[in-house]
Amino acid sequence: MERSHDGENLCEHLDRLEPRVASLERLLLGLRDEVRTRQLVVVDDDDHPRIVGEVFADVAELRLELPGTPGEPGPELLVFAVASSHPSPFELGPAIGMQLRAQGRAVFELDAWPDADGAWRPHLHVTGS
Fewest CB within 10 angstroms: 11, 17, 34, 63, which? Predict the structure, then answer.
């Protein structure tokens, strides 16, 4: 019994489709273990970013944000880790720390970085209102 052209085309299509579906299944199974991205944004019901995890250059940060007023950022908690020094107006690394921010500026910061002797030293900065 010979197949019609339509039957042959359908069989060829299914033969090409099967490996693609298997590849997608493997990809989806891998996502349950790990997701790789440079930025992750979790938004609230009003589409405001509330949790932002981001990696840029050698800086990793996690921000917990409250919605702001129009034209002004809301308060946020920022946790950061800088892998190494890099060219910038500020010496940022290596360092770890956290900031409480309001109206776009840090009002409290606790961080640490190594001195020339390699020992990590804490730094606390508090800004009044």
Answer: 34
Note if the pTM is more than 0.90: no
* Domain spans in the chain, listed from the N-terminal domain onward: 1-35, 39-126
HEC string of the chain?
CCCCHHHHHHHHHHHHHHHHHHHHHHHHHHHCCCCCCCEEEEECCCCCEEEEEEEECCEEEEEEECCCCCCCCCCEEEEEEECCCCCCCCCCCCEEEEEEEECCEEEEEEEEEECCCCCEEEEEEECCC
